[in-house]
Amino acid sequence: xxxxxxxxxxxHKDGVSKAFxxxxxxxHSLIQPIxxxxxxxxxxxxxxxxxxxxxxxxxxxxxxGNRSYxxxxxxxxxxxxxxHNNPHHWQHxxxxxxxxxxxTLDMPMHYIIEMICDWWSFSWNDxxxxxxxxxxxxxxxxxxxxxxTKITVExxxxxxxxxxxxxxx
Length: 169
Prior knowledge:
It is a single chain. The chain is mainly alpha-helical. 66% of the residues lie in helices and 4% in strands. Strand 1 and strand 2 form a beta hairpin. Helix 1 crosses helix 6, helix 3 crosses helix 6 and helix 4 packs across helix 5.
């Protein structure tokens, strides 16, 4: 087990929890109907990263010092396992049809909230709560979301930014 990877996991989960607590405190009317469900998910956020299918592959890829074909291939399989077992990832909701068409499915609200907390955890850990907005702006054309999910995500991010800006004045 890698100390560095374990520290990353601890910091990431802590950032996800901080993000959720902020959203819950500042946007409670949005969270209230699903608060317990999201809180339960946050408590076990990314637990699959400790599984045999993911832990070593992630550790070697990010902290092992090499990106050999085997390391990258093992990581790709671990990532696939991760997104298939963690519906807070947008990739979980992208359907590749047999004819090659790609369809995006609507994400349930509790997974949208967890996904935003997942993204925002890096801002919490870096001490720049506005970083998520820059990151999303740079990645929103890559992230594949259904129309409803994209509108919902962007509305939540807009609400977060408005509250943060008001609190900074």
